[in-house]
Design a protein that fits this description.
Order of helices and strands: HHEHHEEHEEEHEHEEHH
Helix content: 40-55%
Structural class: alpha+beta
Low-confidence stretches: none
CATH architecture of the largest domain: 2-Layer Sandwich
Distance between the termini: 12 Å
CATH superfamily of the largest domain: ATP-grasp fold, B domain
Largest sheet: 5 strands, antiparallel
Mean pLDDT: 92
Number of domains: 2
Length: 229
């Protein structure tokens, strides 16, 4: 329960990962009351964001999933509109500094002694991995395993297990990262403690590529649930 609660609240998750020493992109917390407030307060808020972070930004609700309410912004006017839009979904918002990086994911399986799968990569033509891109067939491609240097793959797998353990994850989880090739930096984006589990979802495909076919994966999850009970 704790892992799912922390994973659902992106601000709580970021706090936990900061304490665990996992690298993250720069961000700021914003409250709906600051957005839907006196125009002077809102103006000062936007000034503070621009002084702290570099464009482009990603504005998102602290809760929700599937990229609902998220916007990529490159200007003051877009920032103001994105904050107003995101405030419709949550009273706590996040403004993240964008990075130019590859989006990679790693599946985790286990309870007290979790294991990591091979690493996969998501590629797409849209501006970012938004709701439409995620759920429209043909909008995104999955590369499994991701064409990464061995040392980078190993580091991502180790970070995925660390992220899973930090939130007290149990059973299954998928950890998403940004990999910046130019600097070889790896930033954790988020953990999904209830990842997609269809035949075309990343999670089961990652384990299939690791040598754990779907029926065996389901069996292991049942055994882990019994172990945890």
């Amino acid at each position: 329960v704790l892992g799912s609660a922390v994973g659902m609240d992106k601000l709580a998750m970021k706090t936990v990962y900061a304490q665990a020493g996992l690298p993250q992109v720069k961000y700021m917390e914003v409250l709906r009351s600051q957005v839907w407030s006196d125009p002077c307060v809102f103006t000062k808020l936007c000034d503070q964001i621009e002084e702290t972070l570099n464009y482009p930004y990603f504005v998102k609700p602290a809760n929700l999933g599937s990229s609902v309410g998220i916007a990529k912004v490159r200007s003051r006017s877009e920032l103001e509109a994105a904050l107003d839009h995101a405030a419709n979904y949550d009273r706590r918002l996040i403004v993240e500094e964008g990075v130019v990086g590859r989006e990679v994911e790693c599946a985790v399986l286990g309870n007290d002694h979790p294991k990591a799968s091979v690493v996969g990569e998501i590629t797409y033509e849209s501006d970012f991995y938004d709701y439409e891109t995620k759920y429209t067939q043909g909008q995104a491609d999955l590369l499994i395993p991701a064409p990464l240097p061995t040392d980078v793959t190993t580091q991502i797998q180790e970070m995925a297990i660390q992220a899973f353990t930090a939130v007290d994850g149990a059973g299954l989880g998928r950890v998403d990262f940004f990999y910046v090739e130019a600097t070889k930096e790896i930033f954790i984006n988020e953990i999904n403690t209830l990842p997609g589990f269809t035949a075309t979802s990343m999670y089961p495909q990652l384990w299939a590529a690791t040598g754990v076919p779907f029926p065996q994966l389901v069996d292991q999850l049942i055994e882990l649930a019994i172990e945890r009970a």
